Amino acid sequence: MGNILKCFTGEDDHGDDDYYRPSSGARYGLQAGSDHGHGPSPYVDVDQPAAASRPHHDVVSLLQDLLYFESTSMVPEALRQHVTSSKKAQVKWYRNILEAYKNMRPQPKTPEEAAQLITTALSRIQRADLLVHHRCIGDGDGFSAYVDTADPRESANVALEVHEMVIDYQKVHHRTQARTHRDYQKARALLRSLDEAGYKIINISGEDILAKKYRIRMRGIDAPELEMTYGKESKDALVKLIGGKRVTIHVYGLDQFGRYVGDIYCDNVFVQERMLKSGHAWHFKTYDKRPEFAQWEREARAAHRGLWASDNPEKPWDWRREQRSSNIQVY
């Protein structure tokens, strides 16, 4: 991934973004056609074209990474040192970029062309537009969103057993409504099974809609849990920002609880920035090193906004650790 980001700028140092920070140099010591006592690179043809038509060396490094991934199904080792996104997310990045590279004609030779390739590939997995209902906002840093499975992007992914559960539920539900055979227990069991599979039946304007559930964790902030002091105020602030509205999420990966971690935008507002500046959340420094996040938190502290009205507010990660030590499940 270091070689991927180098293609955007041609530089090695790209700041402090812990989720998507490149390595300090190319993963491979050999460039195309070079020889430092170890022979030519195993990833390129030794019969090189004329210099004017050769790809830029950063592009060659990118292609080496892609070829390495294609042959091993492993992301470059150096990537692990610089990102906190899950290995599954990293593999997905490379798979999409490799596919885009194979389909690109002509293939990239300059950093600018490679940057366009990467932007096109990552845009497939990094951005989603979702409608957020008020009741689906759990606290100040997370929410759930539902997407109608009639959407072509979702319909092809619905498993056969999910369709069968929906049909069974509709039969039971209709019989219950007609009072010909009441079986509330079976109906509830089918709804639980659908929920476990990540789906929900939602009634909109009298019509039942099968929707896919997406759980979202806002990247780089940590808000007080609902049971904590200021937890309700933090949730209410997020409801005011995004409740009943359509948000755009730029996804960076999945966390250990299966939630999509990303940056959230709504009405041209960067939601994490607003939550930090208003004192409704902490900067989650363990997982995010962006300096602007730290600055926004410092501004809220200095102004005693939100949770910083207290001299020593309890940290949510400390609270969760205490709960887990008491065998209470928290996320």
TrEMBL record:
**Renumbered residue ranges of the record's region Disordered:** 22-45
Question: Can you tell which superkingdom this protein's organism belongs to?
Answer: Eukaryota
Q: Which InterPro entries match?
A: SNase_OB-fold_sf, Staphylococal_nuclease_OB-fold
- Residues annotated as domain TNase-like: 137-310
- By what name is this protein known? TNase-like domain-containing protein
Give the species this sequence originates from. Urochloa decumbens
